[in-house]
Write a structure and sequence with these properties.
The chain has about 55 residues and is mainly α. The chain is built from one helix and no strands. It starts with 7 loop residues before the first helix and ends with a helix.
Length: about 55
């Protein structure tokens, strides 16, 4: 009795992989945005300190 693999397996895997890559790109972009925001925040904090002195 030979088990027959369903045909949709490859398609499903392909879709999962595609979605995974899209998600990874999105997360990478979010990390870049976060890094930029942190840098800007640092700059503003420094300027604020200078103004207080």
């Amino acid at each position: 009795n030979v088990a027959v693999e369903p045909v949709f397996t490859d398609i499903s895997y392909c879709k999962v992989l595609e979605a995974s890559n899209v998600l990874k790109e999105f997360i990478d972009q979010q990390n870049v945005n976060t890094a930029i925001l942190l840098k800007e925040n640092e700059k503003l904090t420094m300027e604020d300190e200078e103004l207080k002195q």
